[in-house]
Amino acid sequence: MADDREDLPPTSRLPGFYRAPLAERREAVIGPAVPAELAAHLEAGGALPLPVADRMSENVIAQHGLPLSIATNFRVNGRDVLLPMAVEEPSVVAAASNAARMVRTKGGFHGEATEAVMTAQVQLDAVPDAAAAPERLAPHRARLLEAADRAIPGMVRRGGGCRDLEVRVIDEAEGLVVVHFYVAVGDAMGANVVDTVAEAVAADVATLLGGQVGLRILSNLPLRRMVRVRCAVGADALGGEALIDGIVRASRFAEKDPFRAVTHNKGVMNGVDAVAVALGQDWRAIEAGAHAWASLRGAYGPLAVWWREDDGLVGELEMPLAVATVGGATGVHPGVRAGLSLLGNPGARELAVIVAAAGLASNLAALRALAGEGIQRGHMRLHARKAELEGAAEKAMKKGGGA
Ligand code: MEV
After folding, report:
1. What's the per-residue H, E or C state across the chain?
2. Which pTM value belongs to this model?
3. Ligand 1: does its nearest atom lie under 6 Å from the Cβ of 247?
4. Which atom of ligand 1 is nearest to the CA of 264?
5. Does residue 266 have its Cβ closer than 6 Å to ligand 1?
6. What's the pLDDT tens digit per position in 61-100?
């Protein structure tokens, strides 16, 4: 994506943005990259039109709202981005924006995502001579990959398709064998595509290996769809050397204790999920994959780690991340479409890096607060504001109800 797109706001550094009236904030971020009808949707408050809601789910009776915010200061792979976030928890957006401001003093976030390759699983039970299953399937590899591609011609036309397969002997005694098909899904989340592949090839695989076909479904642990993002921050921007030490110690704590690692990762997911929800992503799939990945090294561990390097702090987040820019809610939900256009309509791999940057920023903000004054002071300020709002909302409801 070009850095010089004139239809996008030239910088994500918007001092005073949080203090500006809501309408002014909206004006500051909605540029020509947002199509007129989507800008109008945001200007009207962003409620999901009921006919759209009715098509998206079943038994719909209303629509459910969350605040849609913009996290500022993000610079990702040399490009400033205004990050849509939808989250009910106060402080997540402010914290991520603050951390991104510190990180941009050293150039922002840098990262890369692998090709978007999803995993389809075909389960076979009671496979005779299960131990030899990989060897027995190997001569048929090319033909099976071709058969898989034939099931998804549209995806193959768009440059995706079946890249590889793998035979996993899960339980030799029971003959439980699982065959993975690795499918490049382009800018889609890919669930439908890989499910189609799994269903299309299962009978063929069973004929070759014997045994009884079981499940044919994607895995939400997409280890061939990974993202890695890194950032650095100096002691001055962070607020002192002691905070670097504190964050490094916090990282070691998370590396050694699963009880801490899960809370550390909750901080990461504050950012990841807020962007995922704003952009209509399958956040349950993202969550499931993230925590499975966090526990793959034997014990549950941190998704992001921090260490001292040269004169500052460096952090890195690595995780599986299936995010899409086509299909699902991205095509139908006007708020999601507006959010994607605010980002300049990135592809899925670029979006993965942006989402991961939000996760790393959120983790940094949490650890900085915990290593410094503690989390409660900032939280309490924002909770007080929320309590004020609750009072106002209650009054408004009463007034509305009495009218
Ligand atoms: C709260 O939403 C997230 C934190 O608990 C994360 C952490 O402890 O690192 C502050």
Report:
1. CCCCCCCCCCCCCCCCHHHCCHHHHHHHHCCCCCCHHHHHHHHCCCCCCHHHHHHHCCCCCCCCCCCEEEEEEEEECCEEEEEEEECCCCCHHHHHHHHHHHHHCCCCEEEEECCCEEEEEEEEECCCCHHHHHHHHHHHHHHHHHHHHHCCHHHHHCCCEEEEEEEEEEECCCCEEEEEEEEECCCECCHHHHHHHHHHHHHHHHHHHCCEEEEEEEECCCCCCEEEEEEEEEHHHHCCHHHHHHHHHHHHHHHHCHHHHHHHHHHHHHHHHHHHHHCCCCHHHHHHHHHHHHCCCCCCCCCEEEEEECCEEEEEEEEECCCCCECHHHHCCHHHHHHHHHCCCCCHHHHHHHHHHHHHHHHHHHHHHHHCCCCHHHHHHHHHHHHHHHHHHHHHHHHHHHC
2. 0.93
3. no
4. 9
5. yes
6. 999 999 999 999 999 999 999 999 999 999 999 999 999 9
Could you please state the CATH topology (level 3) that the domain comprising 17-113+226-372 is classified under.
Answer: 3.90.770
Does 266 qualify as catalytic in the annotation?
Answer: yes
pLDDT class of 381 with cuts at 50, 70, 90: low
Give the distance (Å) from ligand 1 centre to CA of residue 273.
Answer: 14
Q: Which atom of ligand 1 is nearest to the CA of 92?
A: 2
Please state the domain extents for the chain: 17-113+226-372, 117-219
In angstroms, what is the span from residue 264 Cα to ligand 1's centroid? Answer: 6
**Atom of ligand 1 lying closest to residue 267 CA:** 6
Q: Which CATH number fits domain 117-219: 2.70.98.10, 3.30.70.420, 3.20.20.150, 3.30.450.40?
A: 3.30.70.420
- Which residue, judged by its Cα, is nearest atom 4 of ligand 1? 267
Residue 379 is a catalytic residue: yes
